[in-house]
Amino acid sequence: MAKKILIVGGGLSGTIVANGLCRQLAHQMRQGAVSITVLGTSDKHLYQPGLLYVPFGRIREAELFREQKKVLDRRINFFIDPATHIDVEAKTVSTQSGRSFDYDYLVLATGSRIRPDAVPGMEEGAHWFYDLDGARKLRDALAAFEGGRIVVNVNAPHKCPVAPLEITFMLDEYFKARGLGDKVEITYTYPIGRLHALEPVGKWAVPEFQKLGIKSETFFNTKAVDPKAKKIESEEGVTLDYDLLITIPPHNGAEVIENSGLGKAGWVPTNPKTLHREGSDTVFVVGDTTNIPISKAGSTAHFEADTVVDNIASLITENRWARDYDGKVYCFIETGMNTGTYVWFNYTTPPNPGPPSQMIHWFKLAYNRLYWLSARGLL
Fold this sequence. Notes:
Blueprint: E1 3-8, H1 12-24, H2 26-30, E2 34-40, E3 44-46, E4 65-67, H3 68-71, E5 77-80, E6 83-87, E7 92-95, E8 100-102, E9 105-108, E10 112-114, H4 122-125, H5 132-144, E11 148-154, H6 163-177, E12 184-189, H7 199-212, E13 215-217, E14 222-226, E15 231-234, E16 239-241, E17 244-248, E18 251-253, H8 255-259, E19 283-285, H9 298-318, E20 329-334, E21 340-345, H10 358-375
């Protein structure tokens, strides 16, 4: 009987898993011994890291999208049919259309979603760049802004962990280029006692902020936003005035995960090495969907997906485990409009940001173009 591989989610990690398995199991697919199905929510695939550049007019919106069918290998069964319930005991997934899909191996790649509605006043009083509509509105707000107090407010958990630092550096350079550097005051807030969850990155950011005159407020867990008074208040009792509020909203996982009883707030308890859902050996979890306490970043999704591809293929063809995931993450960090640095780390090696350079900035811009090869599993 043919082995059925079902992938719930058509983002980066789900797409890489599907395409990678197509290549590794090409013979078995030709023989009808393996089928691969992807359940997605859209006919378009979005390059999410590109949203960072939209507010500054540094990327065209058309560059952010491809047709999902063209990103996936043609041998993959792709359905735009969001999952509504996942039953890991019965090994079935129910969908919005009323269909039911069974599986031998399940890959949960359901991603994350922003929740500005979780903080009173945030939807009405803040801007963000974590979806296209928000990035467009922020672009208009920046173009109209002629000076005043900007608060960059970071909430947890969130994906793209270095993006809050990136937009802060980019804002500083953007306004200086417009001749408004002395009319703009930027304050960056973070919910714990440093500027980033990764301690070496937080320490690295301190002198970089000081050099640019960027203020910061740590231990700032957002309680509420007052859009009329233009104030943002923390649970710790600190209130900041703003003329423009840019927030990184808190994130949750997909509703289907929580509704199916697979994880609190949509995050699935995941073995950090095998990437199995805890308590299962046929359900794998990749990308933002995991509850692993590492960065919810595109590179994390990529390296996890590669691990899952190797293991499912090996289990089907050789009935053996291939390798564990070592926690590898690699992130570029824009430090302005024309310079950047990077960090890489894993479970045993901490990050160590280097000096920013123009060359690394160009590397990141190059990767923006190469993303589509990455999604197809060719990079």
